[in-house]
Amino acid sequence: MRIKRSVTRFFLALMLPAITLAVVGYFGAYAIWGNRGILALEDTQAELGIRQQQLAEVQANRQRLEHRIALMTGNDPDLVEELARTQLMDAAPNQVAVPRAKR
């Protein structure tokens, strides 16, 4: 009987540390391998770099288009002629129109 009580006390005394260790282990593993853990941080940073590069390209394209719009509203005759030639592929007699790739 005495041994049974001793064993019971021993296991009851170990219960709290075991539960604490399990909870800490669970959250520790999630902090490393979870959806928002340390390993996922590297993937997120790589994706952020790609998105920032795409944003820079879109902003550069927008600035180019805003510049061309400003030229069109300023009635720039050279730009109007360039647009007419690219859209209509029209040229004067004895001229050859060569289409260019759009930038």
- Helix/strand class: mainly alpha
Which blocks of ≥5 consecutive residues have pLDDT under 50? none
Task: Tell me the series of helices and strands, N- to C-terminal.
Answer: HHH
Main sheet, how many strands, which sense, barrel? Answer: none
| Number of separate strands | 0
Please give the count of helices: 3
Describe this structure in words.
With 103 residues, this protein is mainly α. It is built from three helices and no strands. The protein has helices at 2-33, 38-73, 77-88. The mean pLDDT is 84.
Key features?
single chain, 103 residues, mainly alpha, rod-shaped
Topology:
Elements: H1 2-33, H2 38-73, H3 77-88
Q: Quick summary of this structure?
A:
This protein has 103 residues and is an all-alpha fold.
